[in-house]
Design a protein that fits this description.
The chain has 181 residues and is of the alpha+beta class. It has eight helices and four strands. Strands 2-1-3-4 form a four-stranded mixed beta sheet, with helices on both faces. Helix 1 packs across helix 6 and helix 4 packs antiparallel against helix 5.
């Protein structure tokens, strides 16, 4: 449910920012707001508290962010408080960020390996992916000791499994298909 809320509000806010030609400004300010709410535990507790009514929460947001962020972003914050969706703020921001990246022809990728990749290996892989995908790639390396070796690539919503673990699974399946006389 939270993901759906994030997609709806994030997409609508992106469209608004795009129409107003303020996507970059909104991204920077939205990131600031999201980080502030995420990192300031007391603020997060207050905004999610059932003891405070929506008007009190909106006043808190107004006092903290007024003059620091665009009125449209402040309006979004007040709207999600009014609709009791403040817990979805991070999901909304993530959807907004995904749409900004897509608009900038940028994609996220993760290289899952057994050991940490060297910077040169990571940069070479990033360059290769950018060339093949014809997009800017934001690549990070994640360690997973269960892979045995090789690389598992997650690019957007696609997965390319070049791990030894997967190769062994395929070999096992092939061996099980062989009939012994």
């Amino acid at each position: 449910m939270a993901e759906l809320v994030g997609k709806r509000y994030g997409s609508a806010f992106f469209q608004l920012a795009k129409e107003e030609n303020i996507v970059k400004e909104m991204y920077e300010e939205f990131e600031f707001v999201n980080d502030t709410v995420k990192n300031e535990k007391d603020l997060k507790i207050l905004l999610e508290s059932p003891r405070l009514n929506a008007d009190e929460k909106k006043e808190i947001v107004e006092n903290i962010f007024s003059g620091k962020v665009n009125d449209k972003l402040l309006g979004l914050l007040k709207l999600i408080i009014e609709k009791r969706r403040i817990k979805s703020l991070n999901d909304i921001f993530n959807e907004f960020k995904t749409l900004v990246d897509k608009d900038n022809n940028k994609i996220k990728a993760t290289a899952v390996t057994v050991v940490k990749m060297k910077d040169k290996e990571l940069n070479d892989l990033k360059s290769l992916l950018e060339e093949k995908l014809n997009q800017k790639v934001e690549l990070k390396n994640v360690i997973d000791k269960t892979l045995l070796g090789g690389v598992l690539l997650r690019i957007g919503d696609r997965v390319i499994d070049g791990s030894i673990k997967r190769r062994m699974e395929l070999l096992r399946e092939d061996l099980l298909k062989i009939k012994v006389i």
